[in-house]
Amino acid sequence: MVNKILKPVVISLILFAALSCSTTEPIEDKPGRRDYVWTIDTVVSPTNYPYKTIYRLWGSSPTDLWATAGGGDPAAGIFHFDGKKWVSSADRYEGKYLIPWEPNSIYGFGPNDVYIGCEAGRIYHYDGSGMKEIAALTKDGHTDIVFNNMWGELPLELFAFGAYPNDQLLFNGSIIGHLINNKWTMLNTNGLEGIVAQLYRNKTNSEIYIQVIKYSNSYDTTFIYQYDDGQFIKLYSTIWSSHWASISLISNEVYFVLNTEIAKRINNQFKSVLKLDDTNFYERIWGRNSKDIFLEMTDGLAHYNGIDIKYLFQYSQSNVSIFDSAIFDNDVFFLLYEFQTGLSLIYHGKLK
Predict the structure, then answer these.
(1) How many Å from the N-terminal Cα to the C-terminal Cα in the chain?
(2) Is the per-residue pLDDT at 95 higher than 70?
(3) Could you tell me if 60 and 81 are in contact, meaning their C-beta atoms sit under 8 angstroms apart?
(4) Is-contact 131 123, C-beta < 8 A?
(5) S-S: 114 plus which of 47, 108, 141, 255, CB 3.0-4.6 Å?
(6) How many other CB atoms sit within 10 Å of the CB of residue 306?
(7) What is the distance between the alpha carbons of residues 135 and 211, in angstroms, rounded to a whole number?
(8) Which residues contact 296 (CB under 8 A, 6 or more apart)?
(9) Angle in degrees, CA 188, 190, 195, rounded to 5
């Protein structure tokens, strides 16, 4: 077990630069544009499970996107977009994407460096030629682990996280797997209870922040923790009602969604960035910088440009959620799920 992550220490030789260069102010964030042209793809499986729910989206570029879906046939649970259309792992590529375990999460560092987190604690790696199982992790004897999500900074440092079911069959057994120097270890998650949904390291202070969702038979609770020297320090919690809490990584900085407020963590305190009272804001945000933030609303997708908030599109029906996104310089992709139809949709916005 590993119960400690050493914060990265960067040693810079700056004497010469200090003597020869004058200090410059940081470049101010520019307001994000809104002139997107939108197209919509319906992503379905060619097998007998046409309504597999796609939960995760990742891509190295607008012409190399991946998605993973849970439920049904695991052989049809991986999808790929080449810039023209989406295809399922059960449809093409002569089996080089096929895996025997249900895929639940995905993250990568390049088109030939992609990781898939699966059920049963399995992790696969795609190197451009095919999928290879690289880990079968357990936690305290549990093999029924589900990796709900993944995130990493460097090609050889990756976190895979999620949960396993407890005695009440609720996924509240928290797990965090850590890959570093080609070796996987399971972090000591004593003190956590719930599915680890998000994990990011903040660039400014090198702290790791974690979102955990604890399920119960009566209500669900979201917790936000700071991971420091093997300890989980609770920063915030809320019981789900019409809003939730979450974290997002924007320009290598962690942004906190605290019900109807977006904040950053400065000097061990939450500092408000944007208040969203009296709006239809729901719970998730994504973005490129502090003036280019996408907001999930109950009725569509809105955008904050540092000045005001305007809708980019609105749903044609109710009960729709945005599960994930992939943000590039001129292209954005949002993964939507329609609960009424059971369809997974990819909204692709391209700047004019």
Answers:
(1) 50
(2) no
(3) no
(4) no
(5) 108
(6) 15
(7) 24
(8) 281, 282, 283, 284, 285, 321, 322
(9) 90
Query: Which range among 70-74, 82-86, 166-170 has the greatest average pLDDT?
Result: 82-86
Given pLDDT bands bounded at 50, 70 and 90, which one contains residue 104? very high
On the 0-12 / 13-18 / 19+ scale of CB atoms within 10 A, 138 is: middle
Kindly state the DSSP code that residue 26 receives in the 8-state scheme.
P
Tell me, what DSSP letter sits at residue 20?
H
> 103 forms bridges with which residues in the sheet?
118
Q: Token digits for 88?
A: 């399922």
**E strand intervals along 217-291:** 221-228, 231-239, 245-250, 253-258, 261-266, 269-275, 281-289
Task: State how far the Cα of 175 lies from the Cα of 223, in Å rounded to an integer.
Answer: 15
Distance CA 137, CA 187 (A): 11
The closest of 242, 214, 209, 213 to 226, measured between CA atoms, is 209
pLDDT digits (tens, 9 = 90+) for 254-275: 999 999 999 999 999 999 999 9
Say which DSSP state 308 is in. Answer: -
pTM greater than 0.85 (yes/no): yes
Check residue 216 and give its pLDDT: 82
Contact 273, 255 (CB under 8 A): yes
Counting residues of the chain whose pLDDT is more than 90, the rounded percentage is 69
DSSP-derived pairing of the beta strands 300-304 and 183-186: unpaired
Residue with tokens 């544009």: 33
CA distance to 12, 227, 272, per residue, from 233 (Å): 30, 6, 20
Amino acid at 120: A
Looking at the predicted structure, is the pLDDT value of residue 22 above 60?
Answer: no
What is the C-alpha separation between 196 and 218, in angstroms, rounded? 20
Cα separation values, 197 from 47, 85, 212, 214, Å: 29, 29, 6, 10
Report d(CA 290, CA 60) in Å as an integer: 22
pLDDT at 6: 40
Which ranges of the chain does DSSP label H, i.e. alpha helix? 15-20
The count of other CB atoms within 10 Å of the CB of residue 86 is: 18
